Amino acid sequence: MSATDITKSFHGVHALRGVSFDLCRGEVHALCGENGAGKSTLMKVLSGYHTRDSFGGAFQIKGHEASFYNTKESQRSGVAIVYQELSSATNLSIIENLFLGSEESNLGFLDQSKMLAEAKQLLDLFNMTVSPLTSVGELGVGECQLIEIAKALRLRPEILILDEPTSALSDQEAKILFQVLRKLKAEGLGIVIITHRLNEIYQISDRITVLRDGESVGTWKTQELPEDQLIAAMVGREIKDTYPALTTPTEDVTLEVKNIKVLDPNNSSRYVVDDVSFSLRRGEILGVAGLMGAGRTELLLSLFGALSVEQGDAYINGHRHYMKSPEQSIKNGMALVTEDRKRYGLLLESDVAMNVTLSSLQKTSFLGWLKNQVEAEVASQFVDKLKIKTSSIKNAVQNLSGGNQQKVVIARCLQTQPKVLLMDEPTRGIDVGARQELYKVISDLAASGMSVLVASSELSELIGLCHRVLVLCEGRLTGEYQRQDISEEKVMSAATRFKKRNLTKTQTPSLEAAT
Amino acid sequence: MKQIFKELRTQLRPFMMLLSLLLIWWTFSHVTEGAFLEPRNLSNLFRQMSLTGILASGMVLVIVLGQIDLSVGSMTAFLGGVLAVADQAGASPAMSLLYSLMAGFALGSLQGTLTSYLRIPSFIVTLGGMMSLRGATMWLTSNSTIPIFSEGLLMWGNSSFSIGITKLFMSLVVVIFLLVSSATWWRARKKYPELYPISAFVFQTGVSALILAFAGWTFASHEGLPYPVLLMGAVALVVHTFSQKTIWGRHIYAIGGNKEAAFLSGVPVKRRTIFVFVLTGLLSSIGGLVLSARVGSASPDAGQLLELDAIAACVIGGTSLMGGRGTIFGALLGALIIESLNNGMSLANMEPYWQYLIKGLVLVIAVGIDVNSRGKRGLLD
Predict the structure, then answer these.
(1) Would you say residue A243 lies in a domain?
(2) Structure pTM?
(3) How far apart are CA B334 and CA A40, in angstroms?
(4) Same domain, residue pair B264 and B329
(5) What is the ipTM of this complex?
């Protein structure tokens, strides 16, 4: 496979600029770069996720021009991709997931025995001993990830693309995965692997391509590129360009959390937040790290009153904060920037003004009567202050880009004048430029005396942005690091303190019960 | 010119609705050789429409919230029964109405609580309500027709204001409407000219004023403004103002737009849900008054399929069953379309099976056009 001069932009922001990339048979090609460098976008282009018309450039598979309009077409040409986010249907069994969309059938009836045999084979490949009839919901995140990879392999692809396959795996599982990959490589499969873990790159890959800010820095044979040169190629600039300078927080504690326990809403026999205590000072940015399913989101949601807290207390400026409802939490001076802004954050079809004022309608009304002009003024102020790019405050937020949508959510939070700002994955799905702006906004808020709690799956982001980082594993607090003595290794080791991660659900917990 | 056309595109939906209403009227006027458009018939049409209009005003908010209320037909019958029984027992008209409103309040809170706090889907709660309230009506009326005697109740079905008062009142309504909406618009436009284009204002205000003036002319040329139509106008005005101008109204649209996001933004989703069901309970009580006053009695099988007329009116009027979108104005227009079909087809002596068939087709076609003229919402839409 070879791709030349790929260009792709989202709403005028270039995600890829003239990137070229090639892959040989029987090769593992690692794709490196910082977050937002365009790795995932490139792979989505190659796998047909982005339709042929939406990007510039050309690519060929085995010498033939490839133009995919959907992932089905790319699958037929032998390209299989496993995305970073798990996409299993947790209510179905392993076998149902493996064959989802391409079920084996006989005269329209499912051919269960044929599927069972094939599923067994695939599971054996990964040394998995679970029954194929087990519900995927009962598996750990790592096992789910392996199932996803198995599902991709079932289509007998010639090109396999893995987007951060090991981010959810334990060391043991990663080892098995690499064994499988080596075997596949020997069979002539071309494999593209995206990963942040440098040691893995050296373990498995034959060649390395580095992307930075949507451009290709270069391609090297793995053994010809030492680690320090790789990092230099990836970063290409000083870290301090990305993250703004921080002011020192004051000594007074804004938020005090004591021994919080939260039951898993989907499985009442385990805690998603287990006995967590911490304090947050005025003007401090506190990070919450942890692997997928470690309880980061749940911690924030429960502090905000959106998940019911089994036991434990919280205090804001010394006053008891009963974590009963978001409504109450907002009154107590708390605000939440949600993880999935489209699903949990925004009224997509409503305009910017309505979204900005929703949490604090008292401020733009008189005795329960809305004052449209005050509302328009408030919204316009935030559009100026946060540099939200929108044609007008009456524009529906679904027309805005990801970064600007996120700013709308932040504006809504700021309009409530919170003392404590909770942010869950504030930069997810946001391009590099907008990230930098957001980091600046966050650090400015802290400098003005707000206390910020940031949960993120991106370690580099937490390390660059926060005064202090808490690490969660299995809902328990397993580490706390000050800015000066933090490192990715320390955080990762704390985040994997408990090996057995049995998760029923890895997505954001359902708010059904709460609403 | 191009600019005006572009702005008018945003008004396409109400414009299309008006156009289809006029088309229906034109057709019936041909079929009935002009009888349909006589002030006598049109006045009658508005009178018939008032019940659907009142119920649809509440239904809009239920659907905007993302819920449904199938019980309003039975609820209207039951609350009309309460009214009749109280009247027969010698209560004053005001007290009878109060009893009926209290019962509507209680039933609405019950259905709202079951939906929000106990998380039973509103479809099921109100389906149960539809059945059990029908049973309750039979029990209350001992399965017989209970006549209403008090003039103070009956007038809400059949009486009208004198022609003189009607002329004065309707002129005042049109003038005040024009003044108030122009003043509000002008104030807003001074600050944000780009948000309040002239064409949209002229269209909305102009069309509404024309409709009001036309209705006023119709009443003045026949029997005067019917009491139930006044009641409907008042109800619609109150509910419209509530939904567009208050925090609670904003909350309802927010919940319908994205329930989780609204909840996490501090909107008390459960309490607002209960409130909307209470509102439909109260409006069903007013509907019960209009219905039983019109026929002069309460009967066990009154108001059947009324809920479906109300839902159809909302949906034809552009309310999205996905929630978050819908206006009282649209629902009233929808109610007018539904009642025009009812009235016109009866006037043309069409067989009942034709009437149901055509109403069903109109509903599906209207919503089909509406949904497909909108942009896509998600992958599968």
Answers:
(1) no
(2) 0.82
(3) 49
(4) yes
(5) 0.85
